[in-house]
Amino acid sequence: MIYPSNFETKIGFDHIREKIKDNCLFALGQLKADEMQFSHKAEEIRLNLALTSEFRLICQYEDNFPVSHYIDITAYLKKVRIEGTHFTEEEVFNMQRSLEAIKSVIRFFKNTAENKYPNLKKLAGSIPYYNYIDDRIASILSKFGKIKDNASPELQKIRKDIQQHGTAVSRKLQHLLKKAIDDGYVDKDTSLSVRNGRQVIPVQVSHKRRLGGIIHDESASGRTAFIEPTEVVELNNAIRELEYAESREIIKILTCFTDDIRPYIEDLLRSYEFLGTIDFIRSKALFALSINAVEPALAEEAGFDWQQAVHPLLYLHHKAENKAVIPLDIRLDSKNRILLISGPNAGGKSVCLKTAGLLQYMLQCGMLIPVTESSEAGLFKDIFIDIGDEQSIENDLSTYSSHLLSMKYFLRNAGPETLVLIDEFGTGTEPLIGGAIAEALLNAMNNKGIFALITTHYTNLKHFAAAAEGIINGAMLFDTGQMQPLFRLETGKPGSSFAIDIARKIGLPEEILKDAAEKVGEDHVNFDRHLREIIRDKRYWESKRDKIRSAEKKNVRHCRQVFRRAGAGAETEEGNTG
């Protein structure tokens, strides 16, 4: 179950889906992308991930995978299910080319080693293919997509007659044109022309009565008339009748061909379904390569342990601007099911939340995700989110009321296999009561065994998380020296909002900040200050630790060099002694 109905838009998956569709080669692949949906079935997800992983290798290392003539002819196939209908010449040509694409894909996997791309190989091996259809098409269609002269004896005879009549008409017209030139009816550089499918002679309007025949057209200037001489009218009429006969014979040939193919339509539809699936898997693989996505290990229990996770859309946006994305390490497990993330505004809390929701949704839609291969992910039956402003004028809902309705839905429907994502928990109303209600809701969700990522600024929630089993605090780190966010998540302690410090950096008068500190109370200010001091001290000791490690490595390298030189000197001395 996914909540709310506009989940994909809120989480950004609608943009992912569009990118997958953009990578597809034809409509059937795009249809598969439209049909892609969330699943909680482990085997189905494992298979989809395996297929995409295998195709990612093909995209990386195989240059000869067939990608030409992916043409959707399923509408033609469904049309000709009805007796008496038939394919057109163009439709048969599209069938010929697209069937060759299907055959090439099947052949590609058939010719690979048994243990190479096993899931794709198994998928391709289940598709029936009939050489009879290829042979049947080849018997009536040329390589240029036109019905062959010898597609039937009658067609061959008709086309031969058309050619003979055409030759006779051309000879007769050339003779009449030469005579007209000699008689001065037309200019010396005049040549035959075609109007309404018939060969005609361009004649000066002043002489049009001297050349008997049918006037088919006049030039834009009105100076030239295009005349079909009387001597060739009957021959041209005969050609026209032969062309009608040719059309009837072609329809007869196509109808016979369609009748022969009709028993294979259901198998052909399966073949095109396969080609659409291959196109869709390939598209997912290409997208995975574009975001450095991998297949994480799937765990049996709900939860996840993502190392170096990045938001795919943010990654692509930064990549286009030659900027790096700071990755996140995010973990939820049976011990710490709820992560309460705090920290300054614009510090990356919402991005962290959306990254978690988007990656989990992508994974359960069968997509590879941008994490390290050492990452592990469980599966959830439900993903619920409360992100952004859902106030509604039509339903007379305030922002806070809409949040409460979401909380009500979560408590009624969520369980131990539900992932809940809540941004700015408790905001939208009077802070004291809003914080109290948020704390009660957090306690209720914890008691139900729900997994959740929640962002907040409320101090009472940070205190509650520190004392409650199943909940862990997390902080988006902040550089107090530079007064700027680091966009890194650290679990195990709450984060400060740095409201006073940010206000001071912006330039609010010091008396205003002092007055604000007095109003909020000494305990709150001290708590926030202690958080900042912990962060500052932690960064200081981390820096010291890194310097010590670096110095130790230099000492080890130096000692090794000294020992090597000492050993070499000893060997030299021994050699001299000898």
- As a percent range, the share of strand residues is 5-15%
The description of the largest β-sheet is: 7 strands, mixed
Sheet with most strands: strand arrangement = 1-11-12-13-9-14-15
Number of domains: 2
- Average pLDDT metric: 85
For the CA atoms, what is the radius of gyration? 38 Å
What is the CATH class of the largest domain? Alpha Beta
CATH superfamily of the largest domain: P-loop containing nucleotide triphosphate hydrolases
What structural category do the secondary elements indicate?
Answer: alpha/beta
**What is the number of beta strands?**
15
Low-confidence stretches: 391-396
Q: Percentage of helical residues? A: 55-70%
- Quickly give the CATH architecture of the largest domain: 3-Layer(aba) Sandwich
Termini separation comes to 85 Å
Could you say which overall geometry the principal axes of the C-alpha atoms support? elongated
CATH topology name of the largest domain, in short, is Rossmann fold
Number of helices: 19
What descriptive keywords fit this protein?
578 residues, alpha/beta, MutS, DNA mismatch repair protein, Chain A, domain 3, Rossmann fold, 7-stranded mixed beta sheet, 4-stranded antiparallel beta sheet, 19 helices, 15 strands, elongated
Describe this structure in words.
The chain has 578 residues and is of the alpha/beta class. It has 2 domains: 14-151 and 254-289, MutS, DNA mismatch repair protein, Chain A, domain 3 (Orthogonal Bundle); 294-552, Rossmann fold (3-Layer(aba) Sandwich), CATH 3.40.50. The protein has 19 helices and 15 strands. The strands form 3 sheets. A 7-stranded mixed β-sheet has the order 1-11-12-13-9-14-15, with helices on both faces. Strands 2-3-5-4 form a 4-stranded antiparallel β-sheet.
